[in-house]
Amino acid sequence: MFDFLEGYDVLGAFWMTVKLTALSAVGSLIWGTLLAAMRVSPVPLMRGFGTAYVNIVRNIPLTVIIVFTSLGLADIFGVTMGAADNFDVQGFRLAVLGFIAYTAAFVCEAIRSGINTVPLGQAEAARAIGLNFSQTLRLIVLPQAFRAVINPLANVLIALTKNTTVAAAIGVAEAALLMKEMIENEAQTLAIGAVFALGFVVLTLPTGLLLGWLAKRLAVKR
Amino acid sequence: MSSVLYDTPGPRAKRRNVLLSVVFTLLLLLVLWWVWQKMDDKNQLEWNLWEPFTTGAAWTTYLLPGLGNTLKAAAISMVIALPLGAVFGIARMSDHAWVRGAAGTVVEFFRAIPVLLLMLFANEFYVRSTDISSEQRPLYAVITGLVLYNASVLAEVVRAGILSLPKGQTEAAYAVGLRKGQTMTNILLPQAVTAMLPAIVSQLVVIVKDTALGGVMLGFPELLNSRQTLAANYANVIPSFIVVAIVYIVLNFLLTSFASWLEQRLRRSKKSTGAVLGEDTVEVNPAAVRGTYGTGENTGGGGF
Question: Which residue in chain A has the smallest CA separation from B18?
């Protein structure tokens, strides 16, 4: 019944999706946290930069960003991410770069909303014992904020998982590209669609459940 | 200027802030200068590459028709997805377990799948099972994908809206003798949709952004796709990307601003229940709805 799967590396394609997701998630978490720190910092210029970045990047379609990394960055500017001779590796790295740039804006907003959940008194107490801005943020506010935003961050992660399909637009051999190829060549459209749909349900559903459970466990009880 | 995290700056903090500002400005200028140099190196700053955008032809031949198609697909998707979402949202709260279960499964299923897969699948489905002309097919496929995904997202939005209404609304409706269906259509749904209006408008941004997928993967002649034709004609890849990105930013910024204006207005108006759920509230307060993920805003390509 599933003989149409023969000759196609479905697991390999999904593995590519997982790799794209994992690398982009780590990168965007770091860049997003930095952006969030900028947006709440006492330096007006940094706040302005953070706000501008988030509002600009959030309003550009991810597809535009991903296509730009390939046609703009790689073709025109020669940004090859250290893989000038290997087109596949280059596409993968460029896609990750694009996903990080885009997802970080959403991570930043999630973390900023988490910072807002930390009670005023915490920061006031931290200042009272003489901690400066970066100490307050690192030691007092961010640890609590992170625990409060596991759920929104899980949403961002799940969205990112689904968004990695956009990498198909620049020819990264992940699930969406393989599905496109398969449904064009094989007769069993419905079965192929079901296999790939199931693949994404399998990827996203446990993530949501696991992180939801973690969010409940780690939530700061107030 | 004071916030939770830092005091009103004293003399030392002021000095430090100025220093940090200067350092940050220098870094920013360095990056900008590097980008400018890079652009200059690759001859992307030459006026003849930018000149087309100052005349009408580039806009009337390529960009405006593309933008028109983007808006058309987004508008049609929204118009179909909203009622469909309302139906599924209500069905998820049905008293009959099998209606509830079926609607829940459909909603969770389509929310878990990337929009791109839905579009690709719809496209292939139309090729095989219908006789929609090949020019119309990408539009149909894009709309189908967007409707399936966004209807399920909107279903959750509407459900959250209904759940956020005070319990007294239903009780009062029953007390004056309305039946269950009447309570829903006359009392609960109008209020829920009003309360969720900002979130619904924000969802339009997601839909507008997702139309770009159809341009790249299905050849639907929307804005991003028109950019390619334009760049092929004028050989101005970088300028065309920048202009198209600006068009998207302006369009989506207008929508976002409209949503937050609406939210302010609804919050102020005395007629509302006071329960206005903006996208932030939906996102941050997932306790309201079990398993709220992909609540829209974060769901561009495949959602996000």
Answer: A43
